[in-house]
Write a structure and sequence with these properties.
Layout (H helix, E strand, L loop, with lengths): L1 H8 L6 H12 L6 H77 L1 H29 L3 H15 L12 E8 L5 E8 L11 H18 L8 E5 L7 H16 L10 E5 L3 H10 L8 E10 L3 E9 L3 E4 L5 E4 L4 H4 L8
Parallel strand pairs: 3-4
Antiparallel strand pairs: 1-2, 5-6, 7-8
Helix pairs in contact: 5-6
């Protein structure tokens, strides 16, 4: 059956019926003829295996050629598209530049009224800034009249002390100082008659200048103050006894001035840390008739109770005229206590 049909089977596919017949024929082969049948099958199968291998090789070669062809075609396509892209980009640039120029021109024309309105507002704001700056300049500019008044008051107080030559008359000069937050602060520079600044004065001269400036500033701006008080912290330490007396006279005039000095009268608070100076100053500041004076002596301090202190009322003692015009001893129960100390318990 194989021998008779081999030439025909080699030319066309085998129908299912032939395969069934083939199995039947192979089943009928005798064992003695099996080797011969196997040889016949090998002879029949050999050219087909070679053909199959050759077909597989050709398919693989075809696939490789297809891949190479596709890669070649893709490379050419990419190059062609890249050139087209460059051409389009150049074309787009050529088109977009005049288009944006036209668009910007149109936008500029459309926004012209708005720009004009903004320009007018800027002009208004700048004018307001200039006006405010001018107002600030006028308000903060040193007041020549006030400066002269202050200078005269300082010299008036200074002349009460025992001064060396070259101190008075003083020179006051205005200056501008820019602070850390860009704010302009204005003040006065004080120079002595011989062109010395405050830094070149002695300790006593600085204290005299400070006291004079304090009193002068307080009196110069009385109309701007909401109080009539002066607080002095240990102003006696830098003076000798002669200047201490002169200073005490100043505080007496400020504290006990008459009705004609009502506008310049102040309530004066003085702190002192030296007992000898306090005793001397106390004698000099004893109030006149109709005036009062208090002395607070601090004796201790604790966290629980706060400050401990004694309060004293100071009254004058000594000779005075009686109704007949004769001197008489004006005594007070404070006199006996003065032997032990200058204070009397209230």
């Amino acid at each position: 059956s194989l021998s008779n049909n081999i030439s025909r089977w080699a030319k066309a596919p085998l129908p299912d019926g032939y395969l069934t017949r083939l199995r039947e024929e192979l089943g009928a082969v005798k064992d003695t003829e099996a080797e011969k049948c196997a040889q016949l099958l090998d002879d029949w199968q050999a050219p087909r295996n070679k053909a199959r291998e050759r077909l597989q090789e050709l398919k693989e070669k075809e696939a490789e050629l297809q891949r190479r062809l596709k890669a070649s075609m893709a490379s050419e396509e990419v190059e062609r598209l890249r050139k087209l892209k460059n051409q389009l980009e150049r074309c787009l640039q050529d088109i977009s530049k005049p288009w944006w120029e036209i668009r910007n021109r149109q936008a500029w024309e459309e926004e012209k009224p708005l720009r004009e309105k903004v320009r007018q507002r800027f002009h208004t704001v700048f004018s307001a800034i200039e006006q405010v700056s001018g107002a600030i300049e006028n308000v903060t500019r040193p007041d020549e009249t006030l400066m002269e008044k202050l200078k005269g008051l300082i010299e008036t107080v200074l002349r009460r002390f025992s001064l060396v030559d070259g101190i008075v008359p003083l020179k006051l000069e205005g200056y501008d100082q820019t602070t850390s937050n860009a704010t302009v602060r204005r003040g006065y520079t004080i120079l002595t008659n011989d062109e010395r600044g405050l830094g070149h004065l002695s300790t006593g001269q600085k204290a005299q200048m400070a006291v004079s400036l304090l009193a002068a500033q307080n009196l110069a701006v009385s109309h701007m103050l909401h109080h009539r008080t002066i607080l002095l912290d240990d102003v006696t330490t830098a003076y000798d006894l002669s200047n201490l007396t002169r200073e005490a006279i100043l505080w007496r005039q400020l504290a006990y001035g008459g009705h004609e000095a009502r506008r310049t009268r102040r309530q004066v608070f003085i702190s002192s840390h030296h007992e000898d100076m306090t005793n001397h100053l106390l004698d000099l500041l004893v109030p006149p008739e109709g005036r009062s004076m208090r002395l607070v002596r601090f004796t201790g301090w604790s966290l629980e109770q706060g400050p401990q202190y004694d309060l004293f009322k100071i009254e004058p003692t000594g000779a005075a005229l009686n109704k007949d015009g004769k001197f008489t001893d004006k005594t007070h129960n404070l006199i006996n206590d003065l032997e032990a100390g200058p204070w009397q318990s209230a």
